[in-house]
C-alpha cells in the first residue's frame, strides 16, 4: 500500500490519468527519462456511445517505471480508407475514450453517439476504426486500434474443423486441434463481424481444451484453435465489446480402458512401496498421456496409494503413475484408478475405472478394537457400548451412551480411526485409541441409520426416513450435506468415492457432487421398488435389488444393461470385483461378472460386452430372511446373518453353501482385516467368533451390561486394522 500511495502523490500533477509509473529519482531507478510508452488494452472494441478507460505505462531504458515530467497526451488518427464521419471517437485528457463525441475532454460527462444520416441510409454513420497513441515527454507509443461498431445483439461460435477424425458423440482425442469461428450479429440480426475487430475466444475448462496460439499459419481474427487435452467437456464461446456469446460444447474423448500394471503378485512389507504404471486408451484407440487419475485403495489400513512416484524413480514422459505404500495392518486390499470429475472426465457424469490390483501386506498381526451394542430401548438407565478384547475374547469396561440415547447402527468406516454410531439423538463418535474412550457428540442434527461409508474414509451416509432426508457427512471437513430423498433404504459408493448410488423405494439416485450439487433421480417402472444397491468393487457396474428382478447398470451412464427375474433382498460385492453376492429368501447368489467394453465406444453399447453368470446360486436349505452379507477382505469367504439358527457360509470359489450352527438367529457382524475371523452378534446374547479357515463357531463371548431389559448384541463393529 505504501508504494501505491507514493505513486498517486507523484502523479497528482497529472490529474486523473490512469498510468503506471514510478517517482522520479526514487527507488533503484538510475534513469528517470521516459524511453517507452505503451497503452492497455492493446485492442478496443466499442459499441457506439460506449466508453472505455485506457492505462498508460511509461518505462525508462532499463525497463523500470518512471513518472513523465509533462502531461501525457493522446492522439486519435483515422484510417487511410474513407469512413463516415472521419472522426468516430474522442478521448479525454485522463484517457477515457468515447465511441462518439465527448461534451468536454477535460471534464467528460456525456458521450454523444454519432447518429445515422437519414439522407444516406445505406451508410452506417460512426462505424469504423481509429488508431490511438499516447505521448509522454516526446516519446510516442505504438498505436492501438479502436473499433467502433453497432450494438452487439448476438455472438455464436461454431466448430469448423478438427485435425483428426472425431469419435463417438463428436469427441476429439487428446492433442487434436479444433478450429472455431465466430460471427457477430447487430440490430436486426445484421452481420457486423467485420466491424468489431478481433474476437476473444474462451474455454470454460482449459484443462479439457485450451486456446492454442502456436498453430501456423495463424487463423484470421474471427477464428481460433483449441487443443484437446484431458477428457471431459469444455464450453467454447466468443466475446467482444463486453458481450459473451452462446457456448458450444467441445468434448475431449473419454478413456475406454485404464490398465494398471503389474496386475497381480504385489506383496509388500509395512511402509514398503510399489509403483503402478497406467496405460490409458481413449474411445478412438489413442493412448493418452499425463492424465490426472484418481487413485483408490479399498482398505487404507492395509495399503495406501498416491499419484506420482518416489523421488529418484525413473519414469517415462507422459505416463501416469501411482505409488502403493504398505500400511500398518497385514492383509489384502485392492488398488484402482479412475477418470472422474473434477480432474478427469471434467464436467461429465461419467466415471471410468481401471482393473483392480490386489496387494498383500505382510507383517505382525494387529489388535483391532471390537465393540458391541444393542439397538433395544432400555427399560431404565442408559445403554452401554461393550468392548471386546481381541486377544482374550473377553469383554471390557462398559462405555455409556448419553441418557436416553439409543444406537441404531455403527461402523468404523474405511479409515478405522473412529467408531461412528448413529443414535436417536444424533451421530456420535468414539476414539478407541484414547486412554479412556468416551463418546463425542459430533452431529446432533444428523439423525437416521448409517447406510454406507466411502472407500476413502471421508464420508458417512445416513438415511433419516422420519425427516425424508439423506445425510452425507464429510468427517474430514465436518460438514453435512442434506439430500431431499425420502425413504432411502440402501446406498453404495464407487471405489474412488466420487459417486454415491441410493435406493429409495420406486426411485434410484446417483449423486456425484463434483458434477452437480443435486443428485440425479432415476425413476423405476411402475410397480418396481428397490430395496438394496451395491457397486461392483471394480467400479464398472452397480446392481439394484428390485422386488421382481436384478437390475444391472453401468456407472459410466447409469443405463440398465441386464436384468434377471428374481426377488433379491441383499447385495454386496466381493472386494476383488469378481462376483456380486446376493440373497433372496431361499438362495445365495454369486453372480460372476466380466465387463469389457470395446475401445471405440463411450460406454458399454450392448449386452455383448457384459457377461454374468446367473446360474451360480445355492440353497442352504429352507427359507430365511437375510440381514447382512459379511465378506472377508480377501474375497474368499461370505457369511449371511439371518433369522434361522444357522449362520450361512458361502464359498465364492465353488459356489456352495454350508450352515454354521449358532443355535440362535444372527444380526450383524464384521471381519478382521486379515480375513481370519468374523465376529457376529446373535439372539442368544453372545458374540460368536467364526474361524474362517474352517467355518467353525470357535468362540462364544457372553455379552452383558448392554442395557436393562431385553438387550441383544445386534450391533457389532470391528476396527479395520
Structure in words:
The protein has four domains: 148 residues, Immunoglobulins (Immunoglobulin-like, Sandwich); 99 residues, Immunoglobulins (Immunoglobulin-like), CATH 2.60.40; 108 residues, Sandwich (Immunoglobulin-like); 349 residues, YVTN repeat-like/Quinoprotein amine dehydrogenase (Methylamine Dehydrogenase, Chain H, 7 Propeller), CATH 2.130.10.10. Strands 3, 6, 11, 12 and 13 form a five-stranded mixed beta sheet that branches. Strands 22, 24, 25, 27 and 28 form a five-stranded antiparallel beta sheet that branches. Strands 23, 26, 29, 30 and 31 form a five-stranded mixed beta sheet that branches. It has two helices and 65 strands. The relative contact order is 0.07. The longest helix has 9 residues. A hairpin with a 4-residue loop joins strand 59 and strand 60.
Amino acid at each position: 500500500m505504501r508504494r501505491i500511495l507514493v505513486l498517486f502523490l507523484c502523479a497528482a500533477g497529472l490529474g486523473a490519468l490512469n498510468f503506471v509509473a514510478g517517482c522520479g529519482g526514487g527507488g533503484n531507478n538510475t534513469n528517470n527519462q521516459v524511453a517507452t510508452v505503451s497503452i492497455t488494452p492493446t485492442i478496443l472494441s466499442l459499441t457506439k456511445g460506449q466508453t472505455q478507460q485506457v492505462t498508460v505505462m511509461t518505462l525508462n531504458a532499463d525497463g523500470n517505471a518512471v513518472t513523465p515530467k509533462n502531461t501525457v497526451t493522446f492522439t486519435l488518427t483515422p484510417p487511410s480508407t474513407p469512413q463516415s464521419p472521419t472522426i468516430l471517437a474522442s478521448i479525454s485528457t485522463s484517457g477515457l475514450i468515447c465511441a462518439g463525441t465527448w461534451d468536454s475532454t477535460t471534464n467528460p460527462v456525456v458521450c454523444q453517439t454519432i447518429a445515422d444520416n437519414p439522407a444516406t441510409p445505406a451508410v452506417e454513420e460512426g462505424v469504423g476504426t481509429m488508431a490511438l497513441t499516447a505521448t509522454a515527454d516526446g516519446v510516442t507509443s505504438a498505436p492501438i486500434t479502436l473499433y467502433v461498431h453497432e450494438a452487439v445483439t448476438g455472438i455464436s461460435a461454431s466448430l469448423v474443423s478438427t485435425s483428426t477424425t472425431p469419435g463417438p458423440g463428436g469427441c476429439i482425442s487428446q492433442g487434436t486441434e479444433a478450429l472455431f469461428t465466430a460471427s457477430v450479429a447487430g440490430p436486426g440480426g445484421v452481420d457486423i463481424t467485420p466491424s468489431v475487430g478481433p474476437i476473444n475466444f474462451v474455454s470454460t475448462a482449459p484443462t479439457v481444451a485450451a486456446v492454442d496460439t502456436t498453430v501456423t499459419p495463424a487463423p484470421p481474427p474471427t477464428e481460433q484453435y483449441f487443443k484437446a487435452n484431458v477428457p471431459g467437456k469444455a464450453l467454447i464461446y466468443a466475446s467482444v465489446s463486453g458481450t459473451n456469446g452462446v457456448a458450444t460444447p467441445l468434448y475431449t474423448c473419454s478413456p475406454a480402458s485404464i490398465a494398471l500394471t503389474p496386475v497381480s503378485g504385489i506383496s509388500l512389507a509395512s511402509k514398503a512401496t510399489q509403483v503402478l504404471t497406467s496405460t490409458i486408451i481413449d474411445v478412438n484407440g489413442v493412448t493418452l498421456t499425463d492424465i490426472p487419475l484418481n487413485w483408490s485403495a479399498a482398505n487404507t489400513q492395509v495399503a495406501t496409494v498416491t499419484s506420482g512416484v518416489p523421488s529418484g524413480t525413473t519414469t517415462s514422459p507422459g505416463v501416469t503413475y501411482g505409488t502403493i505404500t504398505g500400511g500398518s495392518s497385514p492383509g489384502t486390499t485392492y488398488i484402482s484408478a479412475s477418470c472422474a470429475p473434477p480432474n478427469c472426465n471434467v464436467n461429465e457424469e461419467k466415471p471410468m475405472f481401471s482393473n483392480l490390483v490386489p496387494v498383500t501386506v505382510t507383517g505382525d498381526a494387529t489388535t483391532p478394537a471390537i465393540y458391541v451394542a444393542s439397538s433395544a430401548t432400555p427399560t431404565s438407565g442408559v445403554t452401554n457400548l461393550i468392548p471386546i478384547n481381541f486377544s482374550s475374547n473377553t469383554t471390557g469396561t462398559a462405555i455409556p451412551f448419553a441418557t436416553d440415547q439409543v444406537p441404531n447402527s455403527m461402523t468404523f468406516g474405511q479409515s478405522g480411526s473412529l467408531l461412528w454410531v448413529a443414535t436417536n439423538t444424533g451421530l456420535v463418535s468414539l476414539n478407541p485409541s484414547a486412554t479412556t474412550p468416551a463418546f463425542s457428540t459430533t452431529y446432533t442434527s444428523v439423525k437416521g441409520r448409517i447406510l454406507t461409508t466411502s472407500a476413502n474414509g471421508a464420508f458417512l451416509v445416513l438415511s433419516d426416513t422420519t425427516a425424508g432426508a439423506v445425510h452425507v457427512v464429510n468427517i474430514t471437513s465436518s460438514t453435512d450435506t442434506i439430500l431431499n430423498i425420502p425413504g432411502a433404504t440402501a446406498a453404495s459408493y464407487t471405489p474412488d468415492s466420487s459417486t454415491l448410488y441410493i435406493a429409495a423405494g420406486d426411485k434410484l439416485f446417483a449423486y456425484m457432487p463434483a458434477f452437480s450439487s443435486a443428485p440425479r433421480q432415476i425413476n423405476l417402472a411402475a410397480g418396481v421398488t428397490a430395496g438394496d444397491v451395491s457397486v461392483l468393487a471394480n467400479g464398472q457396474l452397480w446392481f439394484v435389488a428390485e422386488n421382481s428382478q436384478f437390475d444391472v447398470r453401468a456407472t459410466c451412464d447409469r443405463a440398465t444393461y441386464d436384468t434377471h427375474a428374481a426377488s433379491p433382498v441383499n447385495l454386496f460385492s466381493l472386494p476383488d470385483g469378481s462376483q456380486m453376492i446376493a440373497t433372496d429368501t431361499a438362495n445365495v447368489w454369486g453372480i460372476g461378472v466380466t465387463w469389457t467394453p470395446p475401445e471405440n465406444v463411450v460406454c458399454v453399447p450392448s449386452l455383448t460386452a457384459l457377461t454374468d453368470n446367473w446360474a451360480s446360486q445355492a440353497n442352504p436349505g429352507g427359507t430365511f430372511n437375510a440381514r447382512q452379507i459379511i465378506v472377508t477382505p480377501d474375497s474368499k469367504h461370505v457369511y449371511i446373518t439371518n433369522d434361522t439358527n444357522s449362520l450361512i457360509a458361502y464359498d465364492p470359489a465353488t459356489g456352495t453353501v454350508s450352515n454354521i450352527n449358532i443355535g440362535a438367529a444372527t444380526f450383524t457382524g464384521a471381519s478382521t482385516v486379515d480375513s481370519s475371523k468374523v465376529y457376529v452378534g446373535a439372539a442368544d446374547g453372545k458374540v460368536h467368533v467364526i474361524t474362517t479357515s474352517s467355518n467353525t463357531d470357535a468362540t462364544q463371548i457372553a455379552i452383558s451390561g448392554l442395557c436393562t431389559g431385553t438387550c441383544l448384541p445386534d450391533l457389532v463393529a470391528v476396527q479395520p486394522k
